[in-house]
Amino acid sequence: MKDAWFHPDRTGIYKGEMKNGLAHGKGTYTTSYKGKKGTYKYFYKGSFVNGLKHGKAVHIIKLPTYLIKFQGSFKNDLSDGYGVLTMIYKGKLEQKYTGEFKKGYRHGKGKLIDYFQKTTKQGRFSRGGFKK
Known about the structure:
Elements: E1 13-19, E2 22-35, E3 38-49, E4 52-62, E5 66-75, E6 78-89, E7 92-102, E8 105-114, E9 119-126, E10 129-130
Antiparallel strand pairs: 1-2, 2-3, 3-4, 4-5, 5-6, 6-7, 7-8, 8-9, 9-10
């Protein structure tokens, strides 16, 4: 799964350090919008470089039936490095991935626990898929 962390038009509220009119340094970004199935909310707290998510951060997406939380490293606006991705569906823990990310994908060594299917995959992931 590649991350789509912000609403595409990047409207919202940014509070934090800036440089040349862009988010740069520590800050928070929040936004929300009404969709067909309810309100979608986005929250990011962490580091930015030249307006892009870059460095350690916490990112939360709240959809009408899902809560998605990523805690870890970003590079050039995408999850990259070590992180923990947690997905909650209708208030119940669905999946938790702990491990490496690259360019927005689960990529490298990691562990994926699927609580709904009662399975665990541990080993190498490539572009989001499990390799063993």
